[in-house]
Amino acid sequence: MTKKDDAPGPARAGQEHGAQLSAALGACAAGRSEGIDVILTLEGRQLLGVAMRILGRYDLAEEALQDAMIRVWSKAAQYRAQSGSARGWIYAVLRNRCLNILRDGRRLSVLSPGDLAHVQEARQQIVPPEGWEILSGPGKLSDCLGRLDPQSRHSILLAHVAGFSHGEIAARQNMPLGTIKSLIRRGLVALKECLS
Amino acid sequence: MTKLSDEMIALSDEYVLGLMSQGEAELFEEIMARDEEVARRVGALRDRLLPLDLSASPCDLPEDFTARVHSAIAAQGQQEADPAAMAANMTRPPARSFRRVIAAALVGLAVGFGFGGGWLRPMPEPVVVAVLLDAQGVPQAVVEDFGNDTATVRFVTDIDVPADRSLQVWTLPSEDMGPVSLGVLEGTRAARLAFGDLPDPGAEQLYEVTLEPQGGSPTGRPTGPIIGKGLAAPQL
Questions:
Q1: Are A93 and A75 contacting, i.e. CB atoms less than 8 angstroms apart?
Q2: What residue stretches are annotated with the Anti-sigma K factor RskA C-terminal domain (chain B) (predicted)?
C-alpha cells in the first residue's frame, strides 16, 4: 500500500485512525456492535456534518446517519481493504444514503412546500463559484481542482459536495445536459491524471 | 481483466460522484462485488475526494444517538434472516459474463441518457427503465419507456432467434388491461418502439420479451417462452 504515503494530512496519525476504523469494520463484520461505537466516536460528528450539508435539515441528516450506520453494520463484511480506505467506504455509504433521500420524491413529499424550498435553497449555497478552495482544503486535491477549467470544477463540486444530479446541474448552470456530462467527464479525467 | 474499458472507467467515476440513480448504482455495486479492478478504482477516487467530505462543518450528535443506532440494529437483526444464507439461496449469474452484461446494460442506460456520444443528439429522458432478466437472473434486455407511447429496447446478451420466430416486447399497464404489445422485433438490434395510446408507465410495471411466431403473437397475447422480464424503475 505505498500509495497511502502520499495521502494528504499527517501521515502517522492518519494511518492509526485508518487502522482503528478498519478494525471497527472488522468488528461489525464479526457481529460485535462495539464497532459501531468506534466509528461514531471517531467520525460521528463529521459524518453528521456531511449529511447536514447535503440535506440541509437536522432531522433528515440524523435519519441518513442512522440508516447509514445500519447499512455499515450489515455490509461491513463486504468491505475489502484493497479497494480503498475504511474511512472512504464509510463516507460513501453515508453519501449514498443522503442521495437516496434527496432523490426519493416520496420521502421529501412529507415536507411542507416551505421546508422543501428551504432544503433546495440551502443546497444552492453549498458550492460558491468563488472561494471553492475551502471545500477541498490545502493539499493536492485543491491544487488539482485549481487546474481544471472553472465550469468543469464547479460541476464536479456541485455533484460531489451538494449531491446534485446531471439534470439539476444542467438546469442550474443553464447548459444542455450533454454539455454538463462531457464537462464532468473531461474534468474527472484531468483531475485523476493530476492526482495520480 | 486488468485493463478496463473507457466506459467502465467513466461509470466508476460517475458512481463515486453520486451521479447514478439508485437502480444504476445497485447494478454497479454488483459489478464491484465481482471485479477487483473496478472496486479498486472506485476506492482510489473515493479516497482522493475524501477531503471534500472532511470540509463539512462537524455537527454534534444527539446524546442518545449511539443507543438509537444499537436498538435499530437489534430490531433489524430480529426481523431479517441471515443475509449470507439468503444470498446463498439466490440464483447467481456466472461471474465472468455478469460484468459484461451488466456493464452493457449500464452503458446502454447511459447512452439513452445521452452519454458517450449520445449527447450530440439530445434525447428525451425515459420515464421508467426496466432491466429484463431471464429465469436465472441474467440481464437480457433493457427497456426504456418515455411515457409518450414510445420506448426503446436494447439487448445486452446474445439471444438465439430462430429464422421463423420474432421477438415481441410486452408491458402490463394494469391487470384489467392485461399484457399489451409494444412491438415486434426482427432480430436483436436495438429498436425504438412506437405504440398505441397507453397509460403513463409507473413504478414496478411489468415489461417482458417473448419469443413468438414470425410477425408476432397470433392471439395478441404473449404465447411463447419468456426471454426476459423485469419491473420498471422510475427515473428522475
A1: yes
A2: 102-226
